[in-house]
Amino acid sequence: MERTMAEKLTAEFVGTFALIFIGAGSIVAFAGANGLDIVAVALAHGLAIGVMVSSVGHISGGHFNPAVTIGMLLTQKIKGKDAVGYFVAQFAGGIVGALLLDAALPDQFTKIAHLGTPGVSPGISNGQAVLIEAILTFFLVWVIFATAVDSEGSFNKIAGLAIGFTITLDILMGGAWTGAAMNPARFVGPALVDGTWTSWWVYFIGPIAGSIVAAVLYDSLMIRRPGSAAAGEVAHGTGAHGDETSRTDM
Q: Fewer beta carbons within 10 Å, N or C terminal of the chain?
């Protein structure tokens, strides 16, 4: 059954809220302890997304990420007017998540970690940071399309798990260098509340570029290939296994 737009936007809001409150919150928690534990931070982000995709992916597709929505839009998996609503819900969820995180935790911890705002590590140029973010997001969106969009994939069984694991492995590689945001909303929420906007454009250009490349490549080479079961699916909103909504992540 087709879900209402209000239901879809609520799912996108809550999913992005969870990503910020849990993911950025883990950075604040460990930065105020005995040093940042990158494994714990990676797991916090991956588990948050994996759980949210598994729980509400059947409602909105579980994008939770404007870069993912852009990839879906360019490959006609979501309508333009719906995409705009998703953007609003995702950024709103990120901002509210950051506001409540800031309210819930002591200032001495949130200030040390800049409320979990991703940042470019010293020694890494902004160009290198864009490349890292683009490649990490490429992996993320590729897995999303393979497990949650492709009707020959296995959304009902492993999509949430696979997407969450991809977030985790990406942060294990890129967390120390760029924060491995892979998501403009993941940057904007904490950055807006904390007032930290250094290298902000890295977290738009990198994720969006990586998402576009992965989405277009997978859609053209795998989904629309001759003989594919997904090739004849209706554009705009047809997701895994012929459901009405494209099912995706972060």
A: N
Place of tokens 């897995």: 143
The whole-model pTM stands at 0.90
Residue 156 pLDDT level (bands cut at 50, 70, 90) = low
Torsion angle, alpha carbons of 74, 79, 85, 91, to 10: -20
Interior/surface letters 63-91, b for 16+ CB within 10 angstroms, e for the rest:
bbbbbbbbbbbebbbbeeebbebbbebbb
CA separation for the pair 183, 133 (Å, rounded): 9
Task: Identify whether 247 is part of a domain.
Answer: no
Do 149 and 217 contact (CB within 8 A), yes or no? no
Flag whether 249 is in a domain.
no
Q: pLDDT digit string (tens) for 159-184?
A: 899 999 999 999 999 999 999 999 99
Note down the domain range covering 107: 5-242
**CA-based nearest residue to 148, from 68, 87, 204:** 68
- In 3-state terms, what secondary structure has residue 63? coil
Cβ contact 120:178 at 8 Å:
yes
The CATH number given to whatever domain includes residue 220 is: 1.20.1080.10
Count of domains observed in the chain: 1
Look up residue 36 and give its DSSP letter: -
248 within a domain of the structure (yes/no): no
Q: Is residue 147 domain-resident? A: yes
DSSP-assigned letter for residue 79: -
